Amino acid sequence: MFTHVDQPLVYAQTLLTHFMHLAQAPDHEALVGGFVQGVAGLSGCELVQLYVLDATHTRLGLSAQYLNGHAHTREGQSVPADYNGEQLLQFALCQNRVVCLSDLNTRLHELSFLPTGVVWNALLCVPLLNQKQAVEGVLLCASQRQQDLNGFAESLAQLGSFVLGQLHVQHALRLSSGDVPAPLVSEPRVSGYGLIGESPVMRETYSLISKVLHSPYTVLLLGETGSGKEVVARAIHDYGPRRSKPFIVQNCAAFPENLLESELFGFRKGAFTGADCDRRGLFDAANGGTLLLDEIGDMPLSLQAKLLRVLQEGEIRPLGSNDTHTIDVRIIAATHRDLAVLVSEGKFREDLYYRLAQFPIELPPLRLREGDILVLARHFAKKACAFLRRDVLHWSQAALDHLAAYPFPGNVRELKGLVERAVLLCEGRELMPEHFARRADLALEGSSLSLRERLEQVERSWVLDCLRKNDGNQTLAARELGLPRRTLLYRMERLNVQVGERDG
User: Could you say which of 53, 90, 341, 396 has the lowest number of CB atoms within 10 Å?
Assistant: First the structure.
């Protein structure tokens, strides 16, 4: 473990001392503050950041930071726990892999999470595992010097995992003493696989999940945008036999054809201009686990043929290679589009469609989930309050009636965003209808547009609004929307949003 650090015996003794001091930390601030300060001393880095997943595992929050010789605990600053935004952090988090860069290139990497005004030349991102061997946080170290920090990764990962365990112990002790309220987590029924909802259509969905959970069949998730397809895919992975292996998500609409192929299959050195080294694709990264191909209906036809071979033969061939190798990956496909219609139009391969649709699961839109809107709303509100470390908010009957009457064209995703925004806006102790007014106004009552057209109109309005707020800066707008810049550009083209457009 210490073969790649200077003076390994001294380093090991110092590391042991930090374990002892952190074990005696009296509270949260002392624990996380002492941790980032200790890591700075061990690694010699000028910057150390500790990111921890929230209770919902949907947000990655900055818990503590060491900078300019001082440690600070920081709550509330967070990024989505997926591939959007800060790519290096998300890569370490979602793929459980150490990221070590000894020569940072600001032109290649998004580094908005690093303090400005300083030139950072080396970076280390280490995923931190909890007792269940699931990634629960990320440790980031950055140095102004060009240096290889990879030798610190294993020992710092163990120290960070120890700190995560101590955080859970401290939280349990506070609960037992009555110092903090009970965890604001809605306990789903066992048959719900961690999903929230008791409507008849959701109980039917739970039944379908139970039948396919331990089978090798390819699952096709169908449903409107925001209906929870990725959540269901993760539930199939987390409650199935592959739970200890990687779960990787790739949006097939987020990349041009050539980039998507290299992203999925990987490439060999010299395969194309700029391929200066071998790189594993997502099929290899997900080996033994699950790969979710989101928006499969937008996959180019040429790639569909290659995907079919993967499904049939279990083999892949990276770009630039003459050799194939076998993989063991469970593929789950998801789309909001009608694949049967795409097949009839010649836009989707018929043989691939029947291969993917071995076991289709159609997720119901939120408007058909009787009673679930209010259950989910209360759940999201509790999660938001817990994340913001504020007391649980009460619901006025008027606010509940307001939500129940809204059709939610954006489904669960829209509801979650709406509730989180309302919690932020609420300065009192009770949620009122006015806290939900902005997005509710987006309902196009009396319109003759189809649901798809309504959703696109709402999406277009949001994109334009973000572009206007950021004076047309596409990078800033993409960051605010929680999208990679290239995905924003794709959606702008699809929605016919012109640069410089000012009205919707």
Answer: 341
**Would you state the pLDDT for residue 488?**
83
Q: For residue 272, which of 335, 338, 320 has the smallest C-alpha distance? A: 320
Burial 30-64 (b: 16+ CB within 10 A, else e): bbbbbbbbbbbebbebbbbbbbbbbebeebbbbbb
Beta bridge partners of 129: 135
Low-confidence winner among 84-93, 136-145, 359-368 (lowest mean pLDDT): 84-93
Q: How many CB atoms lie within 10 A of CB 344?
A: 11
C-alpha neighbours within 13 Å on the C-beta side of residue 263:
17
Phi, psi of 378 (to 5 degrees): -65, -40
Q: How far apart are CA 314 and CA 230, in angstroms?
A: 23
Q: Which domains does the chain have, with CATH numbers?
A: 8-177 (3.30.450.40), 195-364 (3.40.50.300), 379-440 (1.10.8.60), 451-494 (1.10.10.60)
Q: Are 336 and 294 in contact (CB under 8 A)?
A: no
Q: Is 354 left (phi over 0), alpha (psi -120 to 50) or beta?
A: alpha
pTM of the complete model beyond 0.85 = no
- Residue 209 · residue 236 · CB < 8 Å: yes
| Coil vs helix vs strand at 80 | strand
Q: Which residues lie across from 486 on neighbouring strands?
A: none
- Apex CA 403: angle with CA 402 and CA 408, to 5°? 130
Split at pLDDT 50, 70, 90, the class of 1 is low
CA 35 – CA 204 distance, rounded (Å): 47
Burial annotation 122-131 (CB, 10 A radius, 16+ → b, else e): bbbbbbbbee
Evaluate if residue 440 carries a pLDDT over 90. no
For 159-194, the DSSP string reads: HHHHHHHHHHHHHHHHHHHTSSPPP------GGGTT
Are the CB atoms for 56 and 120 separated by under 8 Å?
no
> In one letter, which amino acid is 432?
M
Report yes or no: 28 and 73 within 8 Å, Cβ to Cβ.
yes
Helices (H), 389-435: 397-404, 411-425
- Residue 242, Cα to own-chain centre: how many angstroms? 19
Q: Is 468 exposed, middle or buried (0-12, 13-18, 19+ CB in 10 A)?
A: middle
Judged against a pLDDT cut of 50, whether residue 285 lies above it is answered with yes
The Cα 285–Cα 96 span in angstroms is: 10
From 55, 56, 59, 57, select the one nearest 77 (Cα to Cα). 59
